[in-house]
Design brief:
Elements (H helix, E strand, L loop, with lengths): L31 H14 E2 L8 H5 L5 E5 L5 H9 L4 E5 L3 H14 L4 E4 L3 H8 L5 E7 L17 H10 E11 L2 H12 L4 E3 L17 H8 L5 E7 L2
Parallel strand pairs: 1-4, 2-3, 2-5, 3-4, 5-6
Antiparallel strand pairs: 6-8, 7-8
């Protein structure tokens, strides 16, 4: 999700046992509608750390292409993707409770059966909840850019994090990154080009055109109208 799509950082630490969290602690309360959706639907669509390593076939009741989105924001784009691809399954990760409530509302309104949600740090999802080689596509769209140079070490897309994602992707699986900060885009490109076990999906390398199945958010559209760029990177796991 874009930086504009997030509540303000309240200054909580972003260090953890893995070094960098997948999020920053955010302020914001659920609306009454989001809370009701959460109370009613979380037992059906929510996944927890305590469940341990899941079997996606048991979770969704079928074997299908499995997508993981880390940081889905308010969930609209994830709901759009799930609605457009009912033959695929989607796991979303988000700790911002209004976003979780909003996505649950969309799941109900769109009658989606192919979405499940973790409301915990993505590091725990990766380390404790997902089998190796179980994911067909990982999506990280518009993570916190940490624009100040002294904060670049807090950026989520780092070599160590990418390698942990690699082990959860099947061979041939896709890692799709997107950002609206050019400096972060260049950082992502450098990290990915130096990451073992990945190859750029574009033969000529570099940034990819926006894949048609990545919805354009209202904040991205607003940014485009203001002349802001958006950069997509698509890589495949090779081994």
């Amino acid at each position: 999700m874009t930086d504009s799509d997030k509540a303000p950082n309240n200054g909580e630490s972003v260090t953890t046992r893995r070094g960098v969290r997948s999020f920053v602690i955010r302020q914001g309360r659920m609306t009454e509608g989001q809370k009701k959706a959460y109370d009613r639907l979380w037992p059906v669509y929510g996944l927890t750390r305590e469940q341990g390593v899941i079997d996606p076939r048991e979770v969704f009741g079928r074997e299908a292409w499995l997508n993981l989105e880390i940081g889905f924001g308010m969930g609209h784009s994830l709901a759009e993707m799930a609605a457009a691809a009912p033959e695929q399954d989607f796991i979303g990760v988000e700790v911002h409770s209004p976003g979780v409530g909003a996505l649950l509302k969309e799941i109900e309104e769109r009658e989606l059966e192919n979405v499940r949600i973790y409301a915990i740090d993505a590091n725990d999802v990766i380390d404790l909840c997902l089998p190796d080689a179980s994911i067909d596509r990982v999506m990280v769209f518009f993570p916190d850019p940490w624009p100040k140079k002294k904060h670049h070490k807090r950026r989520l897309i780092q070599h160590e994090f990418v390698q942990r994602l690699r082990h959860k992707l099947r061979v041939g699986g896709i890692l799709h990154l997107a950002t609206d900060w050019e400096n972060y885009a260049e950082h992502m490109l450098e990290v990915m080009d130096e990451s073992e076990g990945f190859v750029n999906a574009r033969d000529e390398g570099g940034f990819s055109p926006r894949p048609e199945d990545r919805p354009i958010t209202k904040f991205e559209k607003r940014g485009e109208n203001l002349g802001h760029g958006v950069w997509d990177l698509v890589y495949r796991r090779t081994n």
